[in-house]
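Form 7-S
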Amino acid sequence: MIFRDFLKKLEKAGVLAKMTDGFPRDLCAAEAIIASGGRPVLLPDVDGMPVVSNLLSTRSLMAAALGMEEGALASAFDRAMSSPSAPTLMKSRPPCQEVVRENPDLHSTVPILRHFRDEGGPYVTAGVMIVDDPDLGPNAAFHRLMSTGPRTFTARLVEGRGTDTAWRKAGGPIPAAVCIGPPAEVLLAAAAPAPSDVDEMAVANAFNPVRAAKCVSSGLVIPADSEWVLEGRLLRDLDGEGPFVDITRMLDPRRMQPVFEVDVLTRRKAPFYHAVLPGGAEHRLLMGMPRELAVISAVSRAADPADFRLTEEGCGWLAGVLAIRKRAEGDPMAAARAAMGAHGSMKLLTIVDDDVDPSSPGQVAWAVATRLRPGKDVTILPEGPCSSLDPSADHPMGGRSLGSKMILDATIKEGPGRPRDRFKRIY
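Output:
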């Protein structure tokens, strides 16, 4: 669904909180978003411009934005990932190019928020960057951008991922476009762990038809209904990026990262600016839910999954709970291996039966207390690659982060004196 159409839908349904006060973009707007408690919120006047946040902060909101029931998300995700289809290019001027500005002063034209005092600067947090890999084709992915000047940012490119790979291959500046406020289908696809040769725009179009357009300054294909587009180049120059409050609500350290220079700003006539609060509910949903759906898909090839959730207590990234319909004693470990393979950043995985709701911390703790045998049902995986966001891991300079992982099998294990009905919860 087009970004502004979804905003109107939420407003009509009474779901959207609308602040009446004006807020400066420096710290105060972020404080207002925090105060909303994760509810979709519109700040109509952030230094004179409208800012929206938390539009996709829950699974039910994402499902509504895609025009489907929440229970259909997993199957829709599978279909889109397995059968991507290229979007149709618009022949007329697209909505995202109603206004075009060359060499823009972004400080005065885009309400880029500074969220926290300890961060390195104002950040674009909801930007989907599109580049074209000469070997693998187009790539669309979320990249945070720290503002460093009227037309410059430092872009956090995770090493070895699609944008970083394309940038390193080029050996020189490469065209890039950052889209803010594209349709929900694009936001979900850009966050999904798609294979390197799969075009995320085609994945988005497989969820629902997405209109596409070409950039003003390059041949890059972008979502035509975006609210804002920053067209420019990823330079070979490096500059400091960070610190930044990441999904763990801890500071991700300062790094030297590529400079993104903006040549052209295009936008709608009255654009909404999408701001994702670092470490907030929308950040966790956009970053975590595609991994949850990918885990369910991977596990379905090894066992019978009922549901999987990355836990709030695990920062929506580092810890998960997988419910399975257990058919054989080997199912929990087969499922665990598939889940860990699909989400390599997870360091703690708890396996439960399908009578346990993986989104309920109380039910999961009950299953661990009543069904797990510490001497037999705890598996420690030795040191290996892990998430760079885990502060407890080892982070060698210039190398992969290293840490161990743990699997808890909290499923029912029948045995002497342990009939299945002994484990049934009465109320």
